[in-house]
Amino acid sequence: MDPDIEKSSHELLLRLAGRLPDQLLWRFRDWLGEGAMGTLARTLPRSLLKHRIDLDQTEYRLLVAGLIPHGADWHQVSSTLGVDDVTETRYTFTQSAPEWVNSVDTVSVLIHATLRGRPDVGEVRQSWRHLGVVGEGGAKRVLLVTALNGLPRLTGELQRVLRVLGDEEPGVEVLPPSIDLTGYHRTALANSELVCVGAVDTGSRLVAA
User: Fold this and answer.
1) pTM (2 d.p.)
2) Tell me: the pLDDT tens digits for 123-171?
3) Tens digit of pLDDT for each residue in 44-53?
4) What's the rounded Cα separation, in Å, for the pair 41 and 76?
5) Which of 114, 116, 181, 199 is such that its CA lies 20 to 30 A from the CA of 78?
């Protein structure tokens, strides 16, 4: 796959975290990781329109760069450009795990074993996402990982690990070292804990020491 197309598509899907339904977002990321760009080009613009998710100018350019070369419908793509500001995240995040998580968190243990000291991986963190008031709804684990290369494939790999462990709609955010973070990611990172570190120094810490 063309690296510029891959980068544009991955960044767009990062920016859609917390806006697209989880059951769609993880699937789109899985397709990207597998290189199924034709499928992604046919379905992502239509899903944005169906769920009334407007894109800003930057996101629109990413959509065009990533999916038009793979046959996305021009009319659908052009219709995704919104006139209003992008809505900030409706979620809150906490560092502490909910009560239903075992004292020995098998997911964190496996993620630690998978990514600790791994080439091209920097920090690995996790946060717990809540819709509305903390404690009044379900909590969802969100992994936040920095990496230098192969971001879509690493996303797909970690999603499959979480699905095997019972998370049917995994939240995996694999971030390049230099990116303009969304409010969703800034809030998640500010309320996250370190799981492990990989083998590389990405040049910046996700969360200040």
Assistant:
1) 0.91
2) 999 999 998 666 556 889 999 999 999 999 999 999 999 999 999 999 9
3) 999 999 999 9
4) 10
5) 181
132-140: long-range contacts (C-beta < 8 A, 24 or more apart)?
132/90, 132/92, 133/92, 134/92, 134/94, 139/94, 139/97, 139/98, 140/22, 140/171
> How far is it, in rounded angstroms, from Cα 73 to Cα 178?
30
- Of the candidates 171, 111, 108, the one whose C-alpha atom is nearest the C-alpha of residue 141 is 171
